[in-house]
């Protein structure tokens, strides 16, 4: 399978081509200029592979959660590219990709669960917990919460110990009380991990058309549900 993945969810910009098990990737840690950098990186990766966009089987992108602006940049780019050559798109959880990257960087963590955390601003984090057996599916429903709520949820959850933590969202002081054996605040999302996760999702049949691709903000979804509840009362 040949799949091209893009990501601009957080403080990095990356593009990766996974073709029959071989990975070609470009990764830049930069807070700005994602829009300017992304398409040239796509061209570089495709050129190195000697491949045209139309030869791909699918594209993949982080669906979120994450920065509103960051998500929109990559999603809009993928929509334009996929639509131009009629390619399906596989949406991948940014948190699952963060956890997979941390597990790859820390082989000593073995197959233990990884709690992935992204800073959601306003004293909150986006988070989920991912296992090696089912890396696309959070053991606790992905959510946006304040750190104290996350710590309580981790303590109450029946997760197999030890549990490790990954991501910049773990910088809050409250996480010092979390039942985490070790944390890596430097973990970032990489397009290569999104491509790896997209393969089993593709096999599940979760690909969508470019027009159907939508970001998963979590915060907006919760607000919408609350509004719907108020209106129904």
How would the blueprint of this fold be written?
Layout: E1 2-7, E2 13-19, E3 22-28, H1 34-49, E4 58-64, H2 68-85, E5 89-93, H3 94-105, E6 114-121, E7 124-130, E8 143-145, H4 147-156, E9 164-166, E10 183-184, H5 191-204, H6 219-232
Parallel strand pairs: 1-4, 4-5, 6-9, 9-10
Antiparallel strand pairs: 1-2, 2-3, 6-7, 7-8
Helix pairs in contact: 1-2, 3-5
Descriptive notes:
- The protein is α/β, with parallel strands linked by helices.
- The protein folds into two domains: 2-93 and 189-232, 2-Layer Sandwich (Nucleotidyltransferase, domain 5); 95-184, Nucleotidyltransferase, domain 5 (2-Layer Sandwich).
- The chain is built from six helices and ten strands.
- It has helices at 34-49, 68-85, 94-105, 147-156, 191-204, 219-232, and strands at residues 2-7, 13-19, 22-28, 58-64, 89-93, 114-121, 124-130, 143-145, 164-166, 183-184.
- The strands form two sheets. It has a five-stranded mixed sheet, sandwiched between helices. Strands 8-7-6-9-10 form a five-stranded mixed sheet.
- Helix 1 (34-49) crosses helix 2 (68-85).
- The longest helix is centred in the N-terminal third of the chain and has 18 residues, at 68-85.
- The protein is globular, with a radius of gyration of 18 Å.
- InterPro entries: ATPase_NBD, Gcp-like_dom, T6A_TsaB.
- One of its GO terms (molecular function) is acyltransferase activity.
């Amino acid at each position: 399978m040949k799949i091209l993945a893009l990501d601009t969810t957080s403080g990095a910009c990356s593009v990766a081509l996974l073709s029959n098990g071989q990975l070609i990737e470009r990764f830049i840690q930069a807070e700005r200029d994602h829009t300017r950098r992304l398409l040239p990186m796509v061209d570089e990766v495709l050129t190195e592979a000697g491949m045209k966009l139309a030869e791909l089987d699918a594209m993949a992108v982080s669906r979120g959660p994450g920065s509103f602006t960051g998500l929109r940049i990559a999603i809009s780019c993928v929509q334009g590219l996929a639509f131009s050559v009629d390619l399906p798109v596989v949406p991948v959880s940014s948190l699952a990709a963060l956890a997979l990257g941390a597990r790859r960087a820390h082989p000593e963590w073995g197959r233990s669960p990884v709690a992935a955390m992204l800073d959601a601003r306003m004293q909150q984090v986006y988070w989920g917990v991912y296992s090696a057996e089912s890396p696309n599916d959070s053991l606790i429903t992905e959510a946006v919460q304040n750190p104290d709520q996350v710590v309580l949820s981790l303590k109450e959850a029946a997760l197999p110990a030890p549990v490790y933590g990954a991501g910049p969202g773990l910088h809050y002081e409250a996480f010092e009380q979390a039942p985490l054996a070790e944390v890596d605040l430097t973990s970032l999302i990489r397009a290569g991990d999104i491509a790896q996760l997209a393969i089993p999702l593709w096999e599940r049949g979760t690909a969508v058309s470019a027009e159907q691709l939508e970001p998963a903000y979590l915060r907006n979804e919760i607000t919408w549900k609350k509004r719907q509840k108020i209106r129904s009362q």
